[in-house]
Write a structure and sequence with these properties.
alpha/beta, 28 strands, 18% strand, binds zinc ion
Length: 694
């Protein structure tokens, strides 16, 4: 064991560990005796963020770090002069170390100029030009009243080229000499700083040069700026070897608890770092069990302190569940309590290291702690990464479709065309209004068939399922099942009809891509009409029969143009596919001709949301009569197509008249979608249409 006194600090080396460079020492500053290894909480602006003076004293902090650059700008040196330095200003009885400002000048945004004599930069508070020379920095630190001052250095990023790093290092050396001269006979201690970026040869040269100068202590600067921990540890080890044994060594800006352990092992005595408070703000605690991240949902109900081995105020007073809650509701107290614990933990860790060094048990302690300190916690899944909301988000896409949600109502969007089903309206309401009510579905189910089919005649495969009734079923085609809004509106309405229902219902849905229904079924909260057994049964079996009403639902998936021939002819058509730009084949003149053919024997009405002139022209040319449909949502009008028999039944539909025809003849959308230019048979068909004969 060696002991020696050096300079103003009366440094005493108490012990050096075997097979390690770890050491225990003590030195005396103007305000306080410092036992090392030690950690210095960072109080950049003469305040440790969120921490009270009493909490810091209680934690055992011996030295606070403050920053000359920031304090020069605010509150300004005259305030320190007035209050008798930083100790009087913040009422701090123990030691203070001030950084010189070099790191901030060269790392903070803003313009700066550098010459041999000084660095000049623009104040971020009032844009004033501020000049900092080694002499000016020492003068400021004297006025601030630091126990330990730092020499102004020229910091460069660890990635700079060798020549630039060498030049910055050499300037740092010259400034170090000037800083010593400027300090003069002040009783305040002064540390020199070793630079050299990431170059081993420069680091060695810098350590040798600075070590020759009569500083009271030696710092390693320019690390913790993105290098790997191995690089940093190697650099630290090669530098500390070259520094005087009988002066404190300070590794600036480092690091995690694990980093501190490794650096102590390599001969460092002093540390500062913002991590205990900055990570606390994010909900991270350093504990004797490793890191704990309070964003993890597993802590939500956990009893007991965040660190069972800790005696800090936070751990004595609050459960981990309470701290989790404070973090989740962004309560400032949570940050404060976690910072208090983290600072307490850091300082206790340094004291424990010191005890093991003094007791000769360092090596065992070091080996045991390497894997414990800063080990990441494994309590459950991190809540921030897999919240229920995010799981839902992940499930929001299927095939070409995605769910979008507005005011808790889900909409299906085709990601290829960008088109949204039932945009701007509640799809269940639109289905009810436009399709179920307007088609008089319930009325037609309550009355005997108007079309008299031959008794015992050709019953369709679907109607044979409906054994409850002998009457001819009413057939509804649901073209474009989508998320089943229209089909379910019909089923839900009919299930409420009860004994009034004299005709069975056969509902036939056509869909060429079932992903939209499957996607909506994953989100019953946003598609409430799907909270019914029918849609899942339909997807599973392609059919569903109501257990309570004579209702059968068939699914014909695939190409409507082909599959429609398998279905019984319709009485009602809910024509609700995507628009022409997405489902073009369903809107052509040929498609409507086939539809008209399918219902020529029946009194059929077709309901669709569009009132496009092209679509109406196609329907007229195909042989439908066309009437105005109800307004819905943002649409002032919709469209009803009627088979000739339906048109003659005249259920009070408002057929398009001469006015529409005149408008059509002037329109540039006369041509039915998808019609070839040379074939204008549609024009003659429309002009000769019986509905326009007065
Ligand atoms: Zn604690």
């Amino acid at each position: 064991m060696t002991a020696a006194a050096a300079g103003r600090l009366h440094f005493t080396l108490e012990a050096t560990a075997e097979n390690s460079s770890a050491r225990a020492a003590r030195f005396t500053t103007q305000h306080h005796e410092v036992l090392t290894p030690t950690f210095m909480p960072v109080g950049t602006h003469a305040a440790v963020r969120s921490q009270r003076r009493e909490d810091l004293l209680e934690s055992g902090a011996q030295v606070l770090l403050a920053n000359t650059y920031h304090l020069l700008l605010r509150p300004g040196l005259e305030i320190f002069e007035k209050f008798g330095g930083i100790h009087g200003f913040m009422n701090w009885p123990r030691a203070v170390l001030t950084d010189s400002g070099g790191y901030q000048i060269f790392s903070l945004p803003g313009s700066r100029t550098l010459c041999e004599d000084y660095a000049e930069f623009t104040s971020y508070t009032d844009s004033a030009l501020i000049r900092l020379s080694p002499e000016r920095s020492i003068e400021a630190q004297k006025i601030i009243g630091a126990d330990i001052m730092m020499a102004l250095d020229h910091c460069v990023p660890s990635t700079v080229e060798h020549a630039a790093a060498r030049s910055a290092m050499q300037l740092t050396h010259r400034w170090a000499q000037r800083s010593l001269a400027a300090r003069g006979d002040s009783p305040q201690a002064l540390f020199g700083i070793v630079q050299g970026a990431s170059y081993a040869d420069l680091r060695i040269e810098s350590a040798q040069t600075i070590a020759q100068m009569p500083f009271d202590g030696y710092a390693i600067g320019g690390l913790a700026v993105g290098e790997s921990s191995t690089q940093r540890e190697d650099c630290t080890a090669s530098v500390t070897e070259l520094l005087p044994a009988h002066s404190p060594r300070y590794l600036m800006g480092v690091g995690t608890t694990r980093d501190l352990l490794e650096a102590v092992h390599r001969g460092v005595d002093m540390f500062d770092c913002i991590l205990p408070t900055s990570l606390a703000k994010q909900g991270v605690a350093f504990t004797s069990l490793g890191r704990r991240d309070l964003r993890r949902a597993a802590y939500r109900g956990m009893e007991g302190p965040i660190d069972p081995a800790c005696r800090c105020y936070t751990c004595k007073t609050y459960s981990i569940a309470y701290l989790f809650h404070l973090q989740r509701v962004h309560e400032t107290t949570g940050w404060q309590l976690l910072s208090l614990h983290n600072i307490h933990f850091y300082l206790r860790l340094m004291r424990t290291m010191r005890e093991h060094i003094l007791a000769g048990t360092w090596t065992n302690f070091y080996r045991a702690q390497r894997d414990v300190l800063d080990a990441r916690d494994s309590y459950g899944k991190p809540a921030r990464h897999v919240t229920k909301a995010m799981l839902r988000e992940r499930k929001r896409k299927r095939g070409r479709y995605e769910v979008i949600v507005k005011e808790d109502v889900g909409y299906i969007r085709d990601t290829v065309s960008g088109e949204v089903m039932h945009p701007g309206s509640n799809s269940a309401l639109e289905a009810q209004c436009l399709y179920v009510e307007q088609s008089r579905l319930l009325e037609r189910l309550s009355l005997p068939p108007a079309d008299t089919s031959p008794p015992g005649g050709s019953a369709s495969p679907a109607s044979s399922d409906l054994s409850g009734s002998s009457a001819e079923p009413l057939v509804v085609w649901d073209v474009g099942l989508g998320a089943a809004a229209n089909a379910m509106a019909a089923i839900l309405a009919v299930e409420n009809l009860g004994p009034a229902m004299v005709r069975p219902l056969t509902l036939v849905s056509f869909e060429n891509d079932l992903d939209s229904l499957k996607l909506a079924l994953d989100h019953p909260g946003w598609f409430t009409h799907l909270r019914h057994p029918a849609p899942r049964a339909l997807l599973r079996d392609n059919r569903w029969n109501s257990p309570t009403s004579p209702v059968g639902w068939l699914l014909l998936d695939g190409d409507f143009a082909l599959r429609k021939f398998e279905a019984p002819p319709p009485d009602i058509i809910f024509f609700d596919p995507f628009s022409f730009k997405t489902d073009s084949a369903l809107w052509t003149l040929q498609a409507f001709r086939e539809l008209a053919k399918a219902c020529e024997e029946k009194s059929t009405e077709l309901f669709t949301y569009t009132y496009s002139t092209s679509v109406r022209a196609a329907m007229l040319a195909a042989g439908f009569h066309v009437a105005k449909g109800r307004a819905t949502g943002p649409k002032g009008e919709t469209t009803i197509g009627l088979s000739p028999r339906a048109a003659s039944a005249a259920h009070g539909r408002e057929l398009l008249g001469q006015e529409w025809l005149a408008k059509w003849t002037r329109s540039d959308a006369q041509v039915p979608f998808g019609s070839a230019e040379q074939d204008d048979s549609w024009r003659a068909a429309i002009l000769a249409h019986p509905q326009f004969k007065a």
